[in-house]
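Consider the following input, taken from an annotated entry for Stage V sporulation protein D (Thermovenabulum gondwanense).
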Amino acid sequence: MAKNLLKIKRRLAFLLLFCLLLSCVMIIRVFWIQFVRGDELRTRAEEQWTKDTPVEPVRGTIFDRNMNPLAISAKVNSVMASPPDIKDVESIAEALSEILNINKESLINTINDAKAKKKGAIYIKRKITDEEAQKIRQLNLKGIYFTEESKRFYPERNLASHILGFTGIDSQGLDGVELIYDKFLKGIPGRIIKETDALSRELPFGDERYIPPKEGLNLVLTIDKVIQYIAERELEKAIAENKAKRGTIIVMDPKTGEILALANKPDYDPNDYRNYPQEARRNFAVSDTYEPGSTFKIVTASAGLEEGVVRPNDRFYDPGYIIVSGVKIRCWRAGGHGSQSFIQVVQNSCNPGFIEVGMRLGKERFLKYIKAFGFGETTGIDLPGEAKGILDPNKIGPVELATISFGQGISTTPIQLLTAVSAVANDGRLMEPHVAKALMDKDNNRVMEFKPRVVRQVISKETAKEMQRILESVVTNGTGGRAKIEGIKVAGKTGTAEKYADGKYIASFVGFAPADDAKLAAIVIIDEPSTGIYYGGQIAAPVFQKVMSDSLKYLGVKPEIASEEDNRIEVPDVRNIYVEDAKKILKEKGLDVITEGNGLIVGEQTPLPGIKINKGSKVVLKLTDSKTDKNPIVVPDLTGKNIKEVTNVANVLGLKVEVIGTGYAKKQIPEPGEEVEQGTVLKVFFEP
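Applying the prediction step yields:
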């Protein structure tokens, strides 16, 4: 009996121990599930019984420095489907494929695949037009609904496209400042959360939560829309006239490093970037390198003056060539320039003279200045894909040193060279170039400001002032004569570089104005002109002159040198009026008119109103096909126009027309020149 009792006690003890162990395991398991994996499992559970629809935030607007919008976002509809709620997949796919212009079979497979995977929501097509959305709404398809997303628009189309860049389908920045400042512009997405059943169908009385998105910050650029337009206009003309492969113009404030314009041609429309080749989207101004040619002589001359190896009045003799380590290097001018001062060496862009300065400096000292001016490294400009140029000190021997002295055997980017020359204009201080000015919230409060940054003092103020005077003489007495601006001191240097392909050249000009107190610095590059003229002084300098002249006038920079006869006229404001009236006003002032674009209303004008220009100067009117909102309206002269022409003019001016007779307008009431309110009826009498 005692034996059986002991046996029972052992079994009870074993059972008790087993229960204790099992309880411990269960407690540990509960602790593991509840506390260690609690958040993860809770999230997974919520994902199973809820449908989470993202709400895209509005991307921040990009403005120019004067708050003109260059990139904006608008709300558009995206079509979504709830696969569990779709009963007849084929009929739904047929209806949607016709409206949205997508493949029916592909759509059927997409919906069926989502059903098989028990997905609660899928995109059918994103960012559709209002017309497409309206047609789908009218069908009232079960399981089909809409969500709002943000779509990017670029109202100025191609203008400043290489600066702005573009965005992808998810409104993510893919190029330009859209990419560089994406984290500030994109905002924080919101969500719509709805409860669903086990088959991912929405519960009719389920809980619904809306987490609103947070808008992105607005970006203000240093770019000036008007100067950008001037640069693009002149560059496009120059490429067409010289039948060139491509070209670049950059305009900078040399004292701050702010980029006021950056233009490349060919360019592209960011609204439709997929239909442009990769080459058109490439930002040559910062991403590609080229041999600067004679424009690089500014660096050689600055280094020579700073180190004291040459003085402005030192004499040089150029027989037409110079021999370096047994290699004969010729001057661009057959027979040479003979005896000349160093100032004349710069004016004449004499290669042997610059080679001699380079040899006096020596490799180490010369390289010190080349690197100090920023060559061989990126400038730090806030645009993607910047190249650092080609400069390998280990490959520089006596001959290479000689060729670098006049701008061959070294590669730079346009932004590098302009930044270096701007240091001369800025009394020797090298600035970091930048295109972003500030970040602002939706209430226009400044969240972040991008201030000018001095990189280093490259040369002394005294040397810089001397170089300013010498470069001014290049324009007044040397190869840069076609860059002259009446009444304003211009400093600059021409450049002509032969490419490694036979017969291919790059013509360039870099400079600043006014020479002794620069407001603007600019570089013009024309790549591979094919009309037989390829010198920088002939091709690039006139373009520089037009861009700099119009830009300085726009900025209100007055001539320093009085002209013999003061024929200056203040430009009247002809924006937002009928083009024929605008022409009449300008011609009465003694100004010539050039129209650009299609339409009957003046949208923009260059120069802007209030700027004084010489009598006989050209005013560019950019036309638009939109209506004018100017009120009252000056009645135009409709005499000689047919009924269609009269109706078109009246429509854009906001006037009504009573047509009497047929043929051409002979008489009108009210008469031309009278001021009337919008909506006024014009009686126009027509005769055959």
